């Protein structure tokens, strides 16, 4: 009788493994939160990011900055189970550099190995149904947890081995320890978040285009002739998986292939409602719209619509993301990220050699000088964290302070608002969260009327922009209003507040605080 019972149990377990998987986890112990913004809390303390992007427990509830918010997004099922991403407020993703015991969890820019930035969520069978443990898709026998089972401020968030108990091979029973259980607390979108559908364009440059899903075949590739289909990054060739963006104004771009053709819409219909995307000979205009959920469109995710008919939108043909599936335009965005295209910036050997054409150089006309203005060395005193700081390159024009950008980077380096700045030959590139790696231009400050508006284009987290009141003073060095700069960085990993303390007669810099322009 015992043998017969065990045989029946084995048959039932085998039958369960053959059941088809649904779009979301169906096991009763695995309820998962819906897509949206959340605080993450473990043992009463909050998951936040330090100045270097490392995840840690720290309660910032009563601080001007507040606790970090994360956008939970369902990526789909790539055969390994349902995958989710956790996007930070500045467009990075919670992930790891590699899967090993003690690996530090951190905010990472979107990379080619999405398995290290996507998570399996397991409900921990709590009455509230809002507590989950998180396991990397790269290895579900590892678990995200608070190091040392601690909950004090500054406790590192790491990976560690933890193998679930099993009822049958296809159904794990979550049994994560308390220091791996995270409560998903719903919250509002962060201030400054770009609403999906906002007209925006990526910066000029080379990109690979892929759908923001977990499946392997997510790359847009000109596979053969003029056919544009799904492929995997490692299977596509550098000259067919790369597209050069050129902004044409009016929220429109062209996407050019290395052989000189353009990404466009062909004449082959795929149904009564759509057509296949193809490589075409003539320039083809696309309108682009941000599909970012974070601040300032920093993760470079867009939807594309033909300028000739913006009711159509580029999307993957099926939810299966199969090799060779056509890329299409339809009158509907489709589910599960089928119209959300990540513009993944290419560099180095990833950039293909072009055939009989070259990207147009960026043209920046020389601005005319401001007439009747005088810049004088600033006499303003600056304080930061209660201590005076020396600002070596600051001018005052009509009682408004303008600081050399590199001087600001040097002042904030090593603080919660540190950033790096450099020039890539086309843009002045600002990298939030990184220590400053350069030097401050040695300038002998003196009264000068050599003042011009700056035509410099800046680039930060994939967005190209200019400052409304940037000046070139006594040469070709950029000077910015500190308030305008602080406002631009608000919501990023380098945010800071600045205000003038009239009673003390000094300008106060608050690293890590969101910009308000007032004491907080």
Task: Give a verbal description of the structure.
The protein is flat, with a radius of gyration of 26 Å. The chain is 6% helix and 38% strand. The protein is built from three helices and 41 strands. The longest helix has 16 residues, at 2-17. Strands 1, 2, 3, 4, 5, 8, 9, 10, 11 and 14 form a ten-stranded antiparallel sheet that branches. Strands 16-19-20-23-24-27 form a six-stranded antiparallel barrel. β2 and β3 form a beta hairpin. The protein is mostly beta strands and 520 residues long. It starts with a helix and ends in a 9-residue tail after the last strand.
Structural topology:
Elements (H helix, E strand, L loop, with lengths): L1 H16 L18 E7 L2 E5 L5 E3 L12 E8 L4 E6 L5 E3 L10 E3 L10 E5 L7 E6 L5 E5 L8 E7 L3 E4 L2 E3 L8 E5 L11 E2 L5 E7 L7 E6 L2 E5 L10 E8 L2 E5 L5 E8 L5 E6 L5 E5 L10 E6 L6 E4 L10 E4 L10 E5 L30 E2 L4 E3 L2 E3 L4 E4 L2 E5 H8 L6 E5 L4 E5 L18 E3 L4 E3 L2 E3 L5 E3 L4 E4 H8 L6 E6 L4 E6 L9
Parallel strand pairs: 29-41, 34-36
Antiparallel strand pairs: 1-2, 1-4, 1-14, 2-3, 3-11, 4-5, 6-7, 8-9, 9-14, 10-11, 12-13, 15-23, 16-19, 16-27, 17-18, 19-20, 20-23, 21-22, 22-26, 23-24, 24-27, 25-26, 28-31, 29-30, 31-32, 32-39, 33-34, 35-38, 36-37, 38-39, 40-41
Quick structural overview:
The chain has three helices and 41 strands. By secondary structure, it is mainly beta.
List keywords for this structure.
520 residues, mainly beta, 10-stranded antiparallel β-sheet, 6-stranded antiparallel barrel, 6% helix, flat
């Amino acid at each position: 009788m015992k043998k017969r019972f065990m045989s029946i149990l084995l048959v039932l377990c085998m039958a369960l493994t053959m059941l088809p998987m649904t779009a979301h986890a169906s096991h009763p112990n695995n309820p998962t939160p819906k897509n949206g913004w959340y605080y993450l809390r473990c043992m009463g303390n909050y998951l936040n990011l330090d100045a270097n992007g490392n995840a840690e427990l720290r309660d910032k509830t009563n601080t001007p900055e507040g606790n970090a918010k994360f956008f939970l997004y369902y990526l789909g099922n790539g055969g390994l189970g349902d995958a989710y991403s956790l996007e930070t407020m500045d467009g990075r993703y919670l992930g790891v550099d590699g899967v090993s015991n003690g690996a530090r969890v951190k905010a990472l820019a979107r990379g080619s190995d999405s398995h290290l930035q996507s998570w399996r969520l397991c409900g921990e069978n709590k009455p509230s149904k809002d507590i989950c443990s998180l396991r990397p898709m790269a290895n579900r026998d590892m678990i995200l947890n608070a190091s040392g089972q601690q909950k004090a401020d500054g406790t590192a968030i790491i990976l560690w081995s933890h193998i679930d108990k099993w009822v049958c091979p296809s159904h794990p029973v979550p049994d994560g320890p308390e220091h791996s259980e995270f409560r998903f607390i719903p919250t509002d979108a962060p201030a400054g978040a770009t609403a999906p559908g906002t007209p925006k364009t990526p910066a000029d440059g080379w990109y690979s285009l892929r759908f923001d899903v977990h499946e392997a075949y997510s790359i847009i590739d000109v596979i053969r002739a003029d056919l544009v289909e799904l492929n995997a990054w490692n299977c596509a060739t550098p000259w067919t998986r790369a597209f050069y963006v050129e902004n044409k104004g009016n929220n429109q771009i062209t996407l050019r292939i290395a052989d000189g053709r353009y990404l466009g819409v062909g004449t082959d219909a795929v149904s009564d409602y759509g057509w296949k995307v193809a490589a075409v000979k003539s320039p083809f205009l696309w309108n682009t719209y941000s599909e970012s959920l974070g601040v300032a469109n920093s993760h470079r995710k867009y939807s594309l619509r033909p300028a000739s008919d913006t009711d159509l939108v580029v999307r993957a043909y099926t939810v299966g993301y199969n090799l060779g599936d056509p890329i299409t335009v339809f009158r509907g965005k489709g589910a599960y990220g089928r119209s959300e295209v990540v513009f993944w910036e290419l560099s180095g050997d990833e950039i293909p050699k072009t055939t009989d054409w070259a990207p147009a150089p960026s043209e920046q006309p020389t601005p005319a000088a401001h007439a009747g203005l005088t810049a004088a060395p600033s006499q303003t005193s600056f304080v930061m964290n209660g201590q005076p700081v020396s600002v070596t390159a600051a001018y005052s024009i009509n009682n408004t302070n303008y600081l050399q950008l590199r001087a600001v980077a040097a002042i904030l380096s090593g603080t919660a608002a540190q950033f790096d700045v450099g020039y890539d030959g086309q843009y002045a590139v600002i990298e939030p969260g990184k220590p400053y790696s350069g030097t401050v231009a040695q300038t002998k400050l003196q009264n000068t009327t050599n003042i011009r508006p700056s035509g410099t284009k800046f680039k930060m987290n994939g967005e190209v922009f200019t400052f409304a009141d940037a000046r070139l003073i006594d040469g070709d060095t950029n000077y910015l209003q500190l308030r305008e700069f602080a406002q631009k960085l608000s919501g990023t990993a380098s945010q800071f507040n600045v205000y003038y303390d009239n009673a003390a007669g000094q300008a106060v810099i608050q690293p890590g605080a969101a910009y308000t322009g007032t004491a907080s």
